Task: inverse folding
């Protein structure tokens, strides 16, 4: 087996690729690029602008202006949304405050009602207790009166019996 060694193959490939690359770059710069192949934008002729009113290409300012307007509108919309959210939050806060005030008033009325009920109950208990004491006092007075009458009648009986004995 004889081996052929050739160094011409890789060298030819490198040369071919180099030529292809150089040709593609030259073609792209000459025809496919902007302007007249010198790397200048269209509308420029030897440092002079033709068809341009500003330093930017025609329509460029308009696109920037439209973009700026869109950004401003978006910012305005975001600000309006934030303002609306703030208004909603403020309204919710106001409603929560009103609800808390109503709840507090309701609880206050309930406490007052409970206090009146307790005071009324205490008064009823005091009246009941007073009546019971009066009843007990009357019973005691009646019992004392009965005992006094009994003692008196017993004394009269004893007196009569003594008088009978003395006679």
Result:
């Amino acid at each position: 087996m004889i081996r052929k060694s050739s160094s011409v193959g890789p060298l030819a490939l490198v040369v071919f690729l180099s030529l292809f690359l150089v040709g593609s770059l030259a073609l792209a710069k000459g025809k496919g690029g902007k302007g007249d192949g010198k790397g200048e934008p269209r509308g420029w002729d030897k440092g002079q602008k033709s068809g341009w009113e500003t330093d930017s290409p025609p329509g460029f300012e308009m696109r920037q202006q439209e973009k700026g307007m869109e950004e401003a509108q978006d910012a305005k919309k975001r600000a309006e949304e934030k303002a609306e959210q703030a208004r909603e939050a403020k309204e919710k806060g106001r409603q929560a405050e009103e609800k808390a005030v109503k709840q507090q008033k309701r609880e206050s009325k309930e406490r007052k009602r409970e206090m009146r009920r307790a005071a009324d109950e205490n008064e009823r208990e005091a009246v009941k207790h007073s009546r019971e004491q009066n009843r007990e006092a009357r019973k005691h007075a009646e019992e004392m009166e009965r005992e006094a009458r009994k003692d008196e009648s017993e004394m009269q009986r004893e007196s009569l019996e003594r008088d009978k004995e003395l006679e």
